[in-house]
Amino acid sequence: MNLKRIEVIADDESEIGEATTRMSENYDFVVTSGGIGPTHDDITYESIAKAFNLKLTLHEGALQRMRALSKPHPSQPNFSWDVPSPDLEAKLRMIRLPIDESRDESSQVLFVDENLWVPISVVNGNIHILPGVPRLFTQLLDGLKPHLLPRLTDPEGKGVFRLLFSTPLAESAVAAYLSELATKVEPKGIKVGSYPRWGKKRNTVTLVGRDKEFMESLIPEVEKRTNGVKVDQEDEADEGSDKEKES
Asked: What is the 3-state secondary structure (H, E, C) of 148-174?
């Protein structure tokens, strides 16, 4: 799965709307993180709903799960699900979801973890709205795998290969060659990367692609032009390592 873009967006309705509509148009799988809590600045649902001309709808299935799986905070001893209150309204804010009445609702609201009431809201078929809490984000993203894997041409990533080269040269010293190499291998679907290792004497150059035979044929050239050596781990040729002793 190729990551194409990451954006950090403020809690601003117009920015959220612009970014999500643009991303939805340009990419086939979009994930948002955060802004779906109970407070005034949690505006992801309403901003995306407005951008796609959708209504926010209280999702009954999510409400049932919330009632069954969540407990009132100790600071809310008198909380009731059946009595209107500001606290209840804040909770319901988290399950008012953008719903497109022209689409099957089951494809727009996913419950991917039986232990969580939190839904994944799916807008326009490819925007997946997740919470910003790291533990919940990771748990729900893992739960999305069964929905995502059938869409991948190589779901286990077994057809993607990565070669690492350790070089003592500065990035600026290899920049011209790497630009030349990138142009050369691009038709083969191979990406060339360069990564500085701050505080270390060696940097890393990478080749990533599917044509393993062609990539391996480039090893002597890359080693020569970068004054480097192919490694399995980027610190393998650092001073004092076995690879350094051999070279």
From this structure: HHHHCCCCCCCCCEEEEEEECCCHHHH
- β-sheet with 127-130: strand ranges across: 30-33, 127-130, 120-123, 109-110
Check if the beta carbon of residue 111 is closer than 8 Å to that of residue 103: no
By the 8 A CB rule, do 163 and 206 touch? yes
Gyration radius of the chain's alpha carbons: 24
The predicted-structure confidence for 168-197, as pLDDT tens digits, reads as follows 999 999 999 999 999 999 999 999 999 999
pTM: 0.73
pLDDT in tens, 20-45: 999 999 999 999 999 999 999 999 99
Report how far apart, in Å, the C-alpha atoms of 22 and of each of 5, 90, 122 are.
12, 30, 16
